[in-house]
Amino acid sequence: MKLLTALASVNQGICTGRRTAQRLYEIESITKLKGRHKYYMELLDQRRHQLRGARGPLLLSNTPVLLPLQFQNKPMAIDNIICALFKRTFVPRYRDISSDIRVICMGELGCWIRLYPDMFLDNNYLKYIGWMLYDKDASVRMKCILALKALYEKRESAMKLGLFFYKFKKRILSMTQDRQPEITSECMQLLRLISEHYVGVFSAMEYVFLFQFVYAAYRPMATAAGELICKRLLAPPPHEGFFGQEPPDEFDRNLQNMKTLIDFYLQGEFHRHVPYLVDGLWEAAPALVRNWECMTALLLEPRGGRQDTIPRRRPPPLTLSPELRPRPHPSKTPVSPTSRFRHRSPAALRTCPEPTLDHRGLSEQHTTAEHSVSALTSQQERVLIEMLVAAVRQAAEGRPPAGRRLGKKAAREVDGTRRCREHANMSRHFVKVLPQLLSKFAADKEKVTPLLQIPQYCNLDVYDMDGLGSYLDAALLELDCLVQRHSDVAVLEACARAYGTYCDEGGSAHCQAAPACSRLVDMLVDVLTPLLDVFIQHEKQGLFLGHGEMGRICSTLRRLAAFYSAHDLSSWNLYEKMDSLLTFRRHQGSLPTEVVHCALQCTYYALLWQIVAATDRLPPQEALLDLRKRLMKFCLVCRVYLNHQSKVLSEKAFILLCDLLLILSHQGPEEDTGLGLLFFVPDHVLQCKLLTFVREHVFLEDTGAAGPSRVYKEEDADELHELFHRRNMLAVVCKLIVCNVLEMSAAADIYQFYLKHYHHFGDIIKETMTRTRQNDRLRNALSLLLCLQQLFQKHVDTYGLGYDPIEFICGPFYSIRLLARRFALTLGFDRARDAAHLIHRCVLGEGCSLTTPPPVPRPWRGLAFAFSESPVPEEEARQRFPNLSFLLVLAEFSCKIPPAERQAALAHFQDSIPEGVPVFGEGDMNPMLVYRKSLMRTDYVAQGEEEPAANPFDAICKDSKRPQELPVGTCSTWTPDSLASSSAGDREARNSSKGQKSKRDVFDVDFLSSEDSENSSNEDVDVEGISVHEGPAIGRFLESSAEGRMQGRYGPAACGRLSTCSLKAGELHPTRGGG
């Protein structure tokens, strides 16, 4: 490969020298009349024809001269060597089994095309790159994309790739969804280059497909899509594309581009998160998304709009002249689709225009004409405000939004001095225009709420440095008006956070903002105090306040609760007022729900600020005891409101109680004095109440056909909001379990719904299992086993003992087995040996491990639960052991037991079987036999036994006929000896029936024994031992089994060899029945 690269470089050097000699000859021929020496002209002519490699006589100064043969055939000889090397090295190895060799081949081919385009820039060589775009290895696909990207970066080579892209266009478009994010970003850059070189190459729907990647999670991919959007949607710079009129100024062009971008977001149906669009254009269009003057000018523009003469969209791209259009290869017949690939060249800027795309990629004819720049609509203003706030946040923090991953080659950090200067300029601009923005959008809560986030991203020191104190007074005045005007919680909390930013003690705005905030709180408290006094007096006398007074109380409480979340209002002593309200509610029971809701919120924040004060400065012990009493009283109040008839109030009490328990659990109980007095652990009754609340309010039986697996649509906004609240409540209680505030055994009540509500809450429950396993693997295993025991007991209480074999493979009992199988998968492969020991302790009790496990309480033992006898004496043996079917559930964990310890586990199981255990069902429907076989799957070769099916229940499910039920009188009692003899009898019965042609079960397949496998060889394999029942049913079985697939692909001999190899290696048999 490197030799061919060197030859291509040599020949390319010859071609370059030939062009240089031709150019020098043309220059000297022009100047020969000025007395240039004739001998120098002859040398240039001779050199030019030598490099050209022409044959036949040449005319040098009107004299026929025949060049030597070595000069004539030099380029042709190198081309012949290159062709021979290409056919002997590249063609046989570009599809090599090794991906590294394929990568080398594609990389060198791209290098050859760049070095020697006269030969390799042809469809006969480009086809190899197109074919390898389908390679399964990501590095090979990446090399192909990089090779094409290097070709499309040059105009000369891009002109000759029209037919190639027409053939592989669909594949290149599909690679934007590749599994490797690096390939997707490079492919998007390639498509951007293609769109720049050719006009009309993509349809409208293809542009719609490409534009949506600006919302991709991979940031380089989003940036590449943003560059494509800038090229196809936004107006060009002033020096490009404006003919016959004066180009608009930069400000007007940015105004129009901003409107186009807003229309693109509104009319697109891809995403509803503006920060991702801003981040995608952050590097592609910095002059647009960081243009604060343009954004604020559009927002502050009056409703009537203004008239300007600017182009509506990007001026139309133009086509090439006919002599510059790419032509197909001479050996190929011209294809009509290649006429679409017309290169845009500066030499042809004055030819006829062609259609461009609108903001969604739709083809239209546009000419530059006067257009009225109208004012923004309400929806456009909302989107622009979101874009403005997202850009301000990213400029201040310097990181992309949450969920967007950076590439491996992340962009270098901007210089610190430059970033500080840009941040100062941004802050200086917004402290001037923020009062105007708040004043204009004060009536719209959806628009003013995000605008209130701007102060926390600005440098407020500019108020003192630049003498902008008057703007601070205007901003505080607007905040005061917003608090008095709105009663929405989102607006009030945003105002409180804005006041908190201005009142920062280290900031320059503290001196003016802190008194303003105090005056506002004083006003709210003065309004609330007389209203509460009058309200309580009226309630005691049996009278009622009017709706106006009650509304004022609710709105004032809502404002105080919002400010309490960001400011310490302990000096106003609001706790006493809220406590009197809650105490009155408990005794009288006549407060409105909204009043109680705000009172709970205010009391919770008051207690939090008292805890913060106690943490910063340790108060006396009497104050700590008083604070503990207040905390216990609030927990009691929330506990009472858990059963309130109002759903909103009960859920609020649950969230506040869980958060407070989580905060108090961080205080250590090791000291009797100090902060240890605040430590609080919920008792058993409170834990039961919390779990009961979760079962009743979180795991609901959703209405509809899909039930718990229902997929909500965007139109179901209310139901999605309700689902969000339910997920939040589940996450809160799971956090209590993970942080050991609640006992880990409480997680068993939540694990029961893992499969039933997997679609909505599966991620939260799975993360809880992972965290609890990291905290304590033993207790986590115990909680999993307790969950299965509770489900099994509930099943027995609901459906009875249920010894029908069909219930073991379907129905409610089978769902318990599926849950156990999923629990076994969650144990993972990390520290598998430790997990297996835990399964020994939980499932098999003591004595199974080589080391003595720690003592396990008897109610947790799996076998003890399965073999537990009924407390009521029963006459029938079945009812004496009601939990015997639980062995089918425990069998799902046998796969996690190490093979070296399964023999000990089997011995312990046989020793644990009590006398008189009943036996029902036969074969794979017997719980004890199924559990025993699950522990014997690695001992068949050593004992010469036949290996059972990998999953007998799956084999039964494949049979269309229902298994025959046993008569009532077939139940008997088993002992450990009878269990072993019964298993041996089954093996003898199967071995005695081997070779018979009588009617048998279609799933009974005999395998090669270990002796036959050892005596067989690779050349001559005896396959007579494989006897199957002839018929269509067994044919379908062999097609689905491993042996059937082997025989269908390799034949019987190869199948025997594979079986022999696996048996000698001591691994699992590859021809296991049932696949």
TrEMBL record:
Transmembrane segments: none annotated. Residues 1009-1023 have a biased composition (Acidic residues). GO terms for molecular function: chromatin binding. It comes from the Eukaryota. GO terms for cellular component: chromatin; cohesin complex; nucleus. Residues 970-984 have a biased composition (Polar residues). One of its GO terms (biological process) is sister chromatid cohesion. Residues 305-356, 968-999, 1008-1027 are annotated as: Disordered. Residues 90-175 form the SCD domain. Belongs to the SCC3 family. This is Cohesin subunit SA-2-like. It comes from Odobenus rosmarus divergens.
